[in-house]
Amino acid sequence: MSMIRSFEGFQPVSLKQEGDYQPSETDQLSTEEEDPGTDPEPRQISRQPSATESTLYPNPYHGPFVSRKYFATRPGAIETAIEDLKGHIAKTSGETIQGFWLLTEIDHWNNEKERILLVTDKSLLICKYDFIMLSCVQLQWIPLSSVYRICLGKFVFPGMSLDKRQGEGLRIYWGSLEEQSLFSRWNPWSTEVPYATFTEHPMKNTSEKFLEICKLSGFTSKLVPAIQNAHKNSTGSGRGKALMVLTEPILIETYMGLMSFIGNRNKLGYSLARGSIGF
Predict the structure, then answer these.
(1) Locations of Polar residues compositional bias (predicted)?
(2) Phi and psi for 31 in degrees, rounded to 5?
């Protein structure tokens, strides 16, 4: 059984400053001066070859201006979040942290939500973190000994669904679907869903650092042995239960999907710069 808590102890702090961005000479446009004695001609504007830009921002990573829309990629943001969560774990449980990941959770109504995941020797923690105010909003605590199945595969939807997604994901089960109430199944805000579904964060290719913490395969490779060890050391009713790791399609049972259609296309589940409002 998972536990969800809201925390007021995390206080907002400011981002670490690494200096204002200064455009390089290769980013500036050059104009040719007009000869005052000749007829006016249209100014010619030239850019440096694209090869120069690819040297500054090599593939496969995105350019910095795209990634800066996401507050998680701004200087000091993810480091502050990790330090906050490390301090909270040390004060509350004292468990050994095995890793941090930045992934996208897909709820049972197909809504995307930016999440930080922690794997300790006993627990899986799913954190809703506000990267704008730099504070933990919600923390879901799942004992690893209660996780009995993991599914990896492509997302599938009912045939009549109007809002479908491509790609692959990971689903973690810690409760029985048969015991899930009809209300929680069809309630988009329910916190009683006995599983969680994840896919890779859209900023995975921002940098080498984010490539490491946003990879679903890296998260899975740490999670599976941690669960197996927790089962071996379990003294409760789930002792001796074997973990099943399956490769099969992941069903997201939505039909109309109007709420997820609007939310996902506007990235409402992410700490994102929405642009300036004013004149």
Answers:
(1) 45-57
(2) -120, 145
Phi, psi of 106 (to 5 degrees): -115, 110
pLDDT in tens, 73-98: 999 999 999 999 999 999 999 999 99
Specify the 3-state DSSP secondary structure of 125.
strand
Contacts of 158 (CB under 8 A, 6+ apart): 251, 253, 254, 255
SS3 of residue 209 by DSSP: helix
According to the model, what pLDDT value does residue 177 have? 79
Does residue 207 belong to any structural domain of this protein? Answer: yes
CA dist 271 and 276 (Å) reads 15
Determine the average pLDDT of the residues in 2-21.
Answer: 55
Q: Cα separation of 194 and 211, whole Å?
A: 29
Helix (H, G, I), strand (E, B) or coil at 86: helix
Which amino acid type is present at position 126?
A: I
Q: What is the domain extent for residue 120?
A: 65-266
Question: Whole-prediction pTM value?
Answer: 0.76
> Does residue 5 lie within any of the structural domains?
no
User: Which tens digits make up the pLDDT trace of 120-149?
Assistant: 999 999 999 999 999 999 999 999 999 999
Question: Structural domain tally of the chain?
Answer: 1
CATH number, position 148: 2.30.29.30
- DSSP structure class, residue 121: S
